[in-house]
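job 3f2a | input accepted
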Amino acid sequence: MILAIWVLSSVCAHAHIKLVSLPEREAVIIRLENRSATLVEEERVLTLQKGINRVNFSWKNVDIDPDSVRLTMLTHPDQVTLLNVSYPPSESSMVWEIASEEAWEERVRVSYLLKNIDGLIAYKALADKAEKKVDLRGHLILRNFSGEDFEKARIYMDFGESFEQKIVHGETRQNLLFTAGKVPMEKVWIFNARIQPWDPAPLGMNAGIPVRYRIKNTEKNNLGQFGLPGGKIRVFQEDNHGSTIFLGEDKIDYIPTGEKAEINIGDSRDILVTQQRMQYKKINIRRNEDNRIVLYDTDEKIYAKMENFKDQPAVLALIQHIEGHWDMAECNMKYRLKDSNTLEFEVPLAPGEKKELNMHYHRRNVR
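job 3f2a | predicted structure (367 res):
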């Protein structure tokens, strides 16, 4: 008797299930805030009957992550409920079973992660002849190889204003996102003692020092409205003939508001840095029972000579590294710590000027 009642109620419940087709989308949002995945949000209007409705969502020839698909009720979220989701075997689809308290039209949002559609950031910078200011343009390169056509989609980035864009399968589009004119910049030569040779004389013409344009992402510098996302940047410069020359390209990381960015434009031999280790001694030696050295301190001295061969002033960023725990005994120049083991000296050099760095320090508890 109990079994018969269960079967009868199951048949009656099945009779109330309504089959609903998924209508065309009315609005689409493509979100590019996350660089590793693109989120697509669609809004559609479902015509629901009172009771249980089944809605099929399929994606043929489109690479959607099924686990990322979400359905959100917008019109009657308290009276329309998603009961369960089923996945037909060997199909790119899913079936939603939706309970509705009344027959009405329900606006829903379908969101999912879509592969093979993304946005890249590209910058173009034009420096003036004096290399004091730069005009900066940011572009979004939108690429769609997802298999889906979007006739009208609103694009959201993690900075700036959203905008509407048509982007069909196989298409790449470039959009201007922002312009910033006359951004102050500083030209800096970078000598990193861990990377550049200490004695460049044997290398001859190959001993160049990297040169970078340094800009700051602030409102005072005509920027600072938002953090600048990382991307490729191409740098040009005005010449004496009313045209431009190409200086080079670099890849920059995300630049928060208020922070600096350095754009590499190549190497230069206008600045020469020669560095030597003048002293290295083991002091405060500690031995074990076998008279073997297990710990010691060091007494070290570094000397660097910097020369500016230009007929214009220059700024040299001299980067030194001291490993482990250390203390400075004596130094003739001011420095700032980039981290616990990295020191940066900012050295202004007049035309033809020479300067010397003398650094005396101890490293502690070296094994």
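job 3f2a | Residues 17-114 form a domain with the Immunoglobulin-like fold (CATH 2.60.40).
job 3f2a | closed
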